[in-house]
Amino acid sequence: MIKYQEIANDIRKNILAGQYLSGVQLPLEKEMCAQYNVSRITIKKAVDELVKLGLVIKRRGAGTFVKSIDDEDAKDLSMARQFTGFTETNKGKTLRTEIIKFDVVHPDKEIAAKLQIATDDFVYDIIRVRFADGMPIVIEYTKMPINLIPGIKKDVLLKSIYFYIQHQLKLKIQSAHRSIRAISPNALEIEHLKVRDSFPLLEVEQIAFLDDGRAFEYSISHHRSDQIVFKSVSIRQ
Amino acid sequence: MIKYQEIANDIRKNILAGQYLSGVQLPLEKEMCAQYNVSRITIKKAVDELVKLGLVIKRRGAGTFVKSIDDEDAKDLSMARQFTGFTETNKGKTLRTEIIKFDVVHPDKEIAAKLQIATDDFVYDIIRVRFADGMPIVIEYTKMPINLIPGIKKDVLLKSIYFYIQHQLKLKIQSAHRSIRAISPNALEIEHLKVRDSFPLLEVEQIAFLDDGRAFEYSISHHRSDQIVFKSVSIRQ
DNA sequence: GAGTGGTCTAGACCACCCC
DNA sequence: GGGTGGTCTAGACCACTCG
């Protein structure tokens, strides 16, 4: 449908298929214009997608080149889906969710600030443990304003809140701001994640936003460190 | 110099100065065209920078809106420099580096693959502990091909390898691919980072690239978890 | 239906790299 | 000096939101 995405996909496939090897120069923008029969800006936008993905680099005055990366890394990059919840990232596995807590409370000052709501508004206060193939993977502490996300019940929590938000409420999720740290488990986590007190966890603190710019979720997830890797590509401006 | 960056900066400052409050609609693209006397594509590119930063959202058919974020988060986002080494991120502190190991070796198969070199090429094999204000912050295990980065000596390691690469060798760093995990310290780290064996560390595994697409560094950094937070903004496509 | 941002065009000039 | 990608223009049509 959208030309630049189709072209980006096409080039990406060619790279992954080994059409262009590591370090090799891609066709010039002008040549690709002719090849795909589009304007240069469209080609630029397509190739810029691949730069963001980390597959190629561009040098003014020289050309566009495939990065010198490992096949394994290349696949990683290509599948990189920066934005998915537990349900999506563990597709194909048998998932189970245990609800530890499910209340409605007033947010404390800090959380109210992060969600940009008042301390006398109400938020869900949820704690869940998520299992994949019978193994505990992560414990999630979630706070959501009930005004923005009404109607959550236990059956929603047992499946996927994100699915409910997008398909039942028909809301669109736009972005997430994350902070990542390493921490030690507390007593609750030692019990539910079945780890020892010396077992490190990866903490992901997240504020998630709807496409109208409102924050709809503040969550902290503590992941078993043997079950999660966080990947990122950063490009110098 | 570059118009869209200047405009992006100007709008960013206005948002941070409280000119536009959380949730408020920005002027229309058409209006900004008139205001800055540029074409619409230039305005689009400027505002897209702010979308990437996480400060605003755009909705086709509706307009552009400031995200509902905390002042503190806003500042974080605005300073977000995805790409810096130890020296940059700890500016203003008193830095010290201890060299634990500095050899030249053949890379093993896995590292050769990640750097896209042969196992009979040579790489520096470096281990360093970095201190800020007298406190150990991170231990870095670095491998670099000597062909790409020639002439490293102890005085370079004691300061900043990145500074040497950019200012002495006049090479440009383009990007880094990172994987982040939580781990436990090993004996070496317990000693040098002055932590107990139950103290969690944040591992950052990184492959860094020059602007010609060649990988010039494979490194693993183990950070004291009380001294590092990794931040990220992800936008749904 | 009026108005928004998203995509795309055809063309121009510029900064930069490399020969 | 010849050719690269980077920026920018003026204009067009489209998909979408909202009253």
UniProtKB/TrEMBL annotation, chains A, B:
Alphabetized UniProt keyword annotations: DNA-binding, Repressor, Transcription, Transcription regulation
Claim: Zinc-finger is one of the keywords in the record: no
UniProt entry tagged with the keyword Transcription regulation: yes
InterPro entries xrefs: Bact_HTH_transcr_reg, Chorismate_lyase_/UTRA_dom_sf, Tscrpt_reg_HTH_GntR, UTRA, WH-like_DNA-bd_sf, WH_DNA-bd_sf
Single annotated GO MF: DNA binding
One BP term from GO: negative regulation of DNA-templated transcription
Domain HTH gntR-type: 1-69
Segments forming a coiled coil: none
Cross-referenced PROSITE patterns: HTH_GNTR
Pfam families: GntR (PF00392), UTRA (PF07702)
Alphabetized PANTHER family for the sequence: HTH-TYPE TRANSCRIPTIONAL REGULATOR GMUR, MANNOSYL-D-GLYCERATE TRANSPORT/METABOLISM SYSTEM REPRESSOR MNGR-RELATED
Name used for this protein in its record: GntR family transcriptional regulator
